[in-house]
Specification:
single chain; mainly beta; four-stranded antiparallel sheet; 7% helix; 36% strand
Amino acid sequence: MDIRNCPECGDDTMNAGLAFWPGIETSVAVTRCANDECDWVVIDEQLELTQTVTHAAAA
């Protein structure tokens, strides 16, 4: 699955790099909305784990 547009606001998405996430033992890929007003992020699309958090916590 390759998300190119934010499902919340429709803006473009961007790769936010790798991060360690609570409850997951290895680093995961983080993709976030390019719109700074939107807090949508997806954590490792292959895990199918989607959360809405602030960009500061995701970056």
